[in-house]
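Sample A.
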Amino acid sequence: MKRAKIYLFLHLLLALYSISSVLSKLAAGEPFLSPSFCLCYLGIIALLGIYAIGWQQIIKRIPLTSAYANKAASVVWGFIWGILFFQEQMTIGKLAGLLMIVAGIVLYAYADQEGADE
């Protein structure tokens, strides 16, 4: 149960991390150093600071290889944010890629769990 909470926290942290890319894309559409541009970048810095602290807590509790294997989930979050905020389109190729990422994360987690049981 404790391990499940760590992985839940990791994925929430990765979702938060991926929002910094949303803010970056929003900032790119604003005039350089305008108030909205600066606000977006302030948000990015804040999110990355929170992420850095959270990441340190995660890697204290699980193997680094497991944490990095799960970082691929940020691609999935980026896809979700692209659809929600920027009306990006889902294609069969993108969906196949996302399914491969999720399958890879699950496969790695399963293999990692097997190694922990031995």
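Sample B, a different protein:
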Amino acid sequence: MFRGSTVATIDDKGRLKVPTDFRRALEERFGAEFFITSVAGDHALVYPLPVWEEIESRLAALPATDRIKERYLERVLDGQGRLLVPTILRSSASMSGEVVVSARIDHLVVWNRERFEKRLTEHPFSDEDFSLLSERGI
């Protein structure tokens, strides 16, 4: 399980330097291969390959005519098997220099640092959000 957020960097060649604690936890639990993708285009999702393969198997079980499956697959980008953020994603998500890497239990989310901070400011965690979590037993 992954927790927390931290600042990291994407170098001029588009390589994400994953914070050591996250990298160690990922590699110990899942191995060293990853799949980097995006659905919305404004941030990257970094999945350990075994986690992504489970998602793929669930997608494969859906009918080929499933429109949601088709729209989703149109948006995920090809993985490199390493932490090289694809050029199209670096461009659409404005990722260069400082980024924020956030843990999401079984994968990581990478945001442009300014977008991440703006998102936190514009969409604060509200009392309603706390109530909804409480209804779900959290």
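Observation for Sample B: Helices lie at 20-30, 49-60, 67-75, 87-92, 113-122, 127-135.
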